[in-house]
Amino acid sequence: MNSMIAAPVPVSIDALVLALQSVGYFADRRLATAVFLALKLQRPLLLEGEPGVGKTALAKALSEVLSRSLIRLQCYDGLEQREALYEWNYAAQLLHMRAAESKGSADMAQVEREVYQDRYLIRRPLLQALQAPAPGAVLLIDEVDRADEPFEAFLLEYLGEYQVSIPEIGTVRATATPVTLLTSNRTRDLHDAVKRRCLYHWLDYPERERELAIVRAQVPGASEALAIQVAEFVGRLRSQPFANAFQRAPGIAESVEWAKALVALDTIVVDPEVVSDTAGILFKQREDVAALTRDMAVQLLQPADTDA
């Protein structure tokens, strides 16, 4: 595989904002500052926030901006160290040992050392990130809150020192420091030891102008008037008093998909009937779809200055 040519780290926060925008990611200044510092200080960045606010998309955008390969470790309940770090190729090791036995090798200690060579190592995401050639990788540890506490403890060495310990080989240190992002939907609180090793940013739903910019960029077929309606409607859905009616507010991905659907339906102006017909794009739970009644849609579509 050809090594990638490194793109320089943007020289300022404003330059980073523009670089991210060039690949379709619209970061506000607070988020851009957190990312800029993570790059400059070579520290992991922990992003927490509701699902759908752009945490995972940021890692993909950074991969493009920095011309680095993206390596993703998707966390889940029961995730084991061997799935995150490495495994030995047991079948190949066994074949090696049988071949040595058939040749009458008497030095079994030597045979055992041979089967723990690099060629029998199956690299998983953490080890891949540490051993990625220059310029290094972007490692996304996605939804770390879904893993358990022992797995958090296992991550500490990597997060603190960009290294891991493999009993049969020893300590493996980063060839080139990976840009590391951890994301959490806050289904549970992470241990303080993890947080102390990371920079931290709470990623909230975008403000109207940022969401509008995202819709414009991702749905070029939408008219300006339709893009504005989408951004304003979804923004008001997430605000009080409407937000209390729903279990989960639509994320940015839902805004974009809804805009695409409206364009596909040749929608010129969003009305309550269209909202009702397409509610399953904005919401993924039956109760939330039912909660978006026609009367609520009428209220949401009113100009902001007519709100009660």
Automatic annotation (TrEMBL):
<feature type="domain" description="AAA+ ATPase">
    <location>
        <begin position="41"/>
        <end position="197"/>
    </location>
</feature>
<dbReference type="InterPro" id="IPR011704">
    <property type="entry name" value="ATPase_dyneun-rel_AAA"/>
</dbReference>
<protein>
    <submittedName>
        <fullName>MoxR family ATPase</fullName>
    </submittedName>
</protein>
<dbReference type="InterPro" id="IPR003593">
    <property type="entry name" value="AAA+_ATPase"/>
</dbReference>
<dbReference type="InterPro" id="IPR050764">
    <property type="entry name" value="CbbQ/NirQ/NorQ/GpvN"/>
</dbReference>
<dbReference type="InterPro" id="IPR027417">
    <property type="entry name" value="P-loop_NTPase"/>
</dbReference>
<dbReference type="Pfam" id="PF07728">
    <property type="entry name" value="AAA_5"/>
</dbReference>
